[in-house]
């Protein structure tokens, strides 16, 4: 366990990702596409985890088709 590395990740890349995802959810909420408060839910956390995992860990394509599939499978239900 490397506490300094964990803290650097949390205050660096993770903080940036959280901010970016919060903006995406806020815009979607403003357009009426998602329910109010979704940005603070397990659903939002699941979506961001799937996208970051695919981009950072697996290297598989992060294209519109994948993001649409995640939205349809996780957010809309």
**Separation of the first and last Cα atoms:** 37 Å
> What are the segments in which pLDDT stays under 50 over at least 5 consecutive residues?
none
Portion of residues in beta strands equals: under 5%
The helix/strand series, from N terminus to C terminus, equals HHHH
- Provide the structure class: mainly alpha
Estimate the mean pLDDT confidence: 92
Largest sheet: none
Using the alpha-carbon principal axes, give the shape.
Answer: globular
Helix content: over 70%
| Total DSSP E strands | 0
- Assembly state: single chain
Tally of helical segments: 4
Tell me the Rg in angstroms.
Answer: 14 Å
Question: How would you characterize this protein structure?
Answer:
The structure is a single chain. The model has no long low-confidence stretch (mean pLDDT 92). Helix 3 (42-58) packs antiparallel against helix 4. The N and C termini lie far apart (37 Å). The protein is mainly alpha-helical. The radius of gyration is 14 Å and the shape is globular. It has 4 helices and no strands. The chain has helices at residues 3-11, 13-30, 42-58, 64-75. 73% of the residues lie in helices and 0% in strands.
């Amino acid at each position: 366990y490397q506490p300094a590395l964990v803290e650097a990740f949390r205050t660096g890349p993770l903080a940036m990702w959280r901010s970016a995802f919060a903006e995406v959810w806020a815009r979607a909420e403003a357009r009426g596409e998602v329910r109010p408060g979704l940005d603070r839910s397990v659903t939002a956390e699941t979506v961001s985890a799937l996208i970051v995992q695919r981009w950072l860990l697996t290297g598989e394509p992060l294209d519109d088709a994948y993001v649409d599939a995640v939205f349809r499978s996780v957010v809309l239900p």
